[in-house]
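Query structure, 107 tokens:
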């Protein structure tokens, strides 16, 4: 038997777990709400926006720049939450080991 073949089994197991985690992350959704509550954004695990809700009261204010900034900030917040969740899940999978390139696959 070749030396180190036991590690191959561990690598294959890690690969299966990684694929399973990727499927889980694709189904996951993160949401964020603006500080004033006028904007709500939902992002999926593929970092795609799946829903944006704007309270009609925000339109009554008629301050387009303020609303635009609120939308951008809320989208960025939802994206960050999604990335943090993915990083936490990756850390669980790898036992906290930093494997170069592996976490970049989730971004």
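Result returned for the query:
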């Amino acid at each position: 038997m070749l030396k180190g073949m036991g590690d191959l089994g561990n690598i294959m197991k890690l690969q299966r777990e990684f694929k399973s985690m990727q499927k889980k992350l694709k189904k996951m959704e993160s949401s964020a709400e603006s500080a004033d509550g006028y904007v709500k954004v939902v992002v999926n695990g593929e970092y795609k926006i799946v829903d944006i809700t704007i309270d009609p009261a925000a339109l009554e204010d008629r301050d387009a720049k303020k609303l635009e900034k609120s939308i951008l900030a809320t989208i960025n917040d939802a994206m960050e939450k999604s990335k943090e969740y993915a990083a936490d899940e990756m850390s669980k999978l790898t036992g906290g080991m930093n494997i170069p390139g592996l976490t970049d696959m989730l971004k």
